[in-house]
Amino acid sequence: MTAENTAIFGSLNDPETIKSQTVILSTYSPCTRHALAPENLLTVSLTLLLSAEFWTATVRIATPLIFGTLGELLCERAGVLNLGIEGIMTVGALVGWAAVYQGADLWMGVLLAAAVGALFGLLHSLFTVYLGLSQHVTGIGITLLAANLAYFFYRVLLPNVATPPKIQPFQPLAIPLLSKLPLIGSALFNQTPLTYLALIAVGAVAYLLYQTPLGLAVRMVGENPQTAEAQGISVYAVRTGAVVAGSALMGIAGAFLTLSAFDSFFVNLINGRGWICIALVVFASWQPFKALLGALLFAGFDALQLRLQQEIGAGIPYQVFLMLPYLLSILALTVMARRAGYPKALMVPFRRGER
């Protein structure tokens, strides 16, 4: 592979993006790459938006963002900012992959990733919920601890390996008849099981928050914990439960990358996705279905820039294209954040008896 192709296919240092890009590019002749002038950008973009491969790649790229954003949303709805998401995703990716590498079932790898995520969530809640320490400092500490523990144990497990060993990941599961639908068939109904689980999780979290007494308690402790306490709700227990459950989803988000999108673990695998999830929560105004939209929007921008590199990339530094999804996401975030109604008790420590 040439240096130019390495730069393009290695963008975002993202294995599942690389895999999805390979699918997208397979529908185009190599001789057409870099052949288009900038004035044809609109035509290229429209053609891509009408291709089933683009939407399939978009949903695949969005899957870890959906898990991570839902996890962060649960934490923040209860009033706790969890900046440990980047590290929790990293350790979840390692634990899931290592479990399968050592002979466990793929679903056992997912469960173990969720469990280790929940443990770090419990640690986060101990410092922020019970001790009332800074959520910013604690979250950054959790990220540094979890990520470096993951890299340390990876080296302990494989001390003399230069190339990461591979496992057999989840395979796409086509749903009969529905997967044959034009455009959306392969995008929604020919994905791996974890992608289906992510889409189901969106509805499950929305139902939990808005249709159950437990969801009402979560929202209440995030808006007015003193009132929740007066109603007999344990603010500490509800906040801890939300952080633990949210962190478990973050662990699954990391596991998706090593068990579904790719088939191995390596350093910097997460590459900022956790921070993107935090921004997507604000974009979504702390609402699950808007979070799904935000994840798909960012993933679509990412898939689009990868294809544009191939079409009009000649003479333009590839970093310009790498910036596009972030710039467009910042623009969308700026517009949406002006109308976002954040939980009133977010990042506010609760102390029993205080008003």
Instruction: Give the overall pLDDT as a whole number.
Output: 84
Largest sheet, strands/sense/barrel: 2 strands, antiparallel
The class by helix and strand makeup works out as mainly alpha
Radius of gyration: 21 Å
Q: How far from one another are the termini? A: 63 Å
Helix content: 55-70%
Q: Outline the low-pLDDT stretches.
A: 1-36
Shape estimate: globular
Oligomer kind: single chain
What is the number of strand segments? 2
Separate helix tally: 15
Biggest sheet strand line-up: 1-2
Order of helices and strands: HHHHHHHEHEHHHHHHH
Strand content: under 5%
Notes on the protein architecture:
It contains 15 helices and two strands. By secondary structure, it is mainly alpha-helical. The N terminus is likely disordered. 68% of the residues lie in helices and 1% in strands. Strands 1-2 form a two-stranded antiparallel ribbon.
Q: How do the strands and helices of this protein lay out in sequence?
A:
Layout: H1 3-9, H2 15-25, H3 41-49, H4 52-77, H5 85-101, H6 106-130, H7 135-157, E1 173-174, H8 184-189, E2 190-191, H9 193-211, H10 213-223, H11 225-230, H12 235-261, H13 273-283, H14 288-312, H15 318-337
Antiparallel strand pairs: 1-2
Give short descriptive properties of this protein.
about 350 residues, mainly alpha, 15 helices
Short characterization:
The protein has 355 residues and is mainly alpha-helical. The chain is 68% helix and 1% strand.
